[in-house]
Amino acid sequence: MKRRHHEAEDEMGINLTPLIDCVFLLIIFFLVTASVIPLESDLSIQLPTHNRQLKTKVPSRPITVNVRFLPGGRAYYHVENERMSLASLTVNLSRAKVRNKDQAVVIRGDKRVKWEHIAAVMGCCAQAGINKVSASLEIQELR
Predict the structure, then answer these.
(1) Residue 56: pLDDT band by 50, 70, 90 thresholds?
(2) How far apart are the C-alpha atoms of 106 and 65, rounded to whole Å?
């Protein structure tokens, strides 16, 4: 018995009916299981007004302490382009803490400076009562 040429082509096709059924079942499943989140904002609500101006506190600029490298493993400290010793740094940080109780300090240390000099600045911050201390570094892109 000879087979017709067009019957062979029909057997080669992909039946997409089961795939479409699965997709529709997934859509129905996700629609049924998804929870609808009610909107909490109602546009018909009129919010009360306040006659007084609210006093908002503008956050102060953090104090930047630059720790610079000196030959021989020594370091010196700069705050606002003024060279300082650790004692004068502690005094200045204490004054800043009195003016602003939320004063922050950013320490920028040269990569050649020993850790003990950075820790000394952290100790000055602790003596002044400043607990918002951070260190900055430069992030280089890996190649």
Answers:
(1) low
(2) 6
Q: Which helix (H) or strand (E) holds 26?
A: helix 17-33
Residue 70: domain span:
63-135
Read off the amino acid at residue 17: T
What is the rounded distance in angstroms from the CA atom of residue 128 to the CA atom of residue 97? 7
Q: What is the pLDDT of residues 70-109, one digit of tens each?
A: 888 888 898 888 898 899 999 999 998 998 888 899 998 8
Quote the number of domains for the chain.
1
In a domain, 8, yes or no: no
d(CA 108, CA 11): 74
Integer Rg of the chain from CA: 34
The pLDDT value given to residue 127 = 92
Indicate whether 70 belongs to any domain: yes
